[in-house]
Request: fold
Amino acid sequence: MGFSVIDDAPVTGFHRKLTAACCGGPLLDGYLLGIVGIALTGITAQMGLGTAAEAVIGVAALIGMFFGGLVFGPLTDRVGRKTMYTLDILALVIASVLSVFVTEPWQLIVLRFVIGVAIAADYPIATALLTEWLPRKRRAQMFTSIIVIWYVGTALAYLVGYLITAYLGDGGWRWMLGSSAILSAVIFLLRVGTPESPRWLVGAGRAEEACQIIEHALKVPVSAAELQDAAPDAGRARGNITELFRGVYLRRTAFVVVFFSCAIIPLFALLTFGPQLLRAFGLGTGNAANLGTALINLVFAVGCLPAMRLLETVGRRKTIIRSFALMVLPLMALGTWTHAPAAFSVAFFCLYALLSGGPSILEWSYPNELFPTHIRAAAVGVAVALTRFGAAVGTFLVPVSLTELGAGPTMYIGAGITFVGFLACVAWAEETRDRSLEETGGDGVSGLPQRSVPAVAGGAYPSHKPETRSV
Reply:
């Protein structure tokens, strides 16, 4: 039986509650990234910020995510997923409240940096914990919730920013920044009582405790011996981050970092400076551009829904390759036709958002599927750190590029970055559909082209019949 008791389990209320709690981090990430983009207008006016200072505030959280991912990813593999599951959210509550009282730009930069560290800590904690509890046939579907809620968080930020600006004007930026404290407090309460990952417990030599947690959560008995036999990295909970840069894991790390970066550099630039970009294309002025950015964010979320189905039917590899190839086209169109009617420009932005669903979901699914339990959180942490560093650089350069080069060349640069992501996927993307974490995270080469992999039988759940699928 082993971990098939988790892999082949039916989805229950426990899985749904865990997914909702784990979605809290991405919700806050999207909200905190989006809200600063709107607040910057009022901050700049009140504090007299120059272009450089405005850009530093915009990217401070991304820089914080670089350091947070490098530190807290490996730490999560060492001390467990549950230990820091609520502490990082508390940090977000405190930093959000303090943002209301800043009087100098450097204070806001420091607080945005701290917020970035806390968010980066949450991704390896929450996504590793969620991955290690989810049934394998529902991983893509449940991970879709994470990325959809990220976009919902960003769209909510622009909606809240729109409403606050409408009633309070640009001077309402303090309330915008402080509003995230309410969301953080709700998520903190939702996470209280979440159990530890059984896979991590077995790796830490605590198999008996893992059995008790599984039986309590899933109502199915399993023995410690079965769990230990099913865990190839049992007793190796203290992973070494250097493993990510050796053997097959080096290639997987390179793949995750490259495709992840190429997906989020244009995305973060669009979301952080969305209103400025839309104004550069003549799409509204003032508060109308905020509402337009909220609409594009909702389209990003909608694009994840068909992608979720494709990831489970067509497969991960084909979906991500096709998505990147198609995502290049609307960016090229925006670069070529900078004076297009407003309706066409909005349509191109929305088309890019709609096509990005596959890579968006796999940004979190792939790092968790391609690495074993003892270095899984470290892999997510490194992916967050390195990709956010690239996103920070790209985001910092957006206002400079719009000023110095113009909207057209800025879109061409985004298209070029997206094309690099396409090449990385063609070379390195693996197929992980319908496979257990022990299979996908093993150190053997799974093969880049599609191949047949027998699915594990249902174990404790007799309604799940053995089957073989082409993946």
Remarks:
- Residues 124 and 277 are 31 Å apart (CA to CA).
- The two ends are 23 Å apart (CA to CA).
- Residues 373-404 form the longest helix (32 residues).
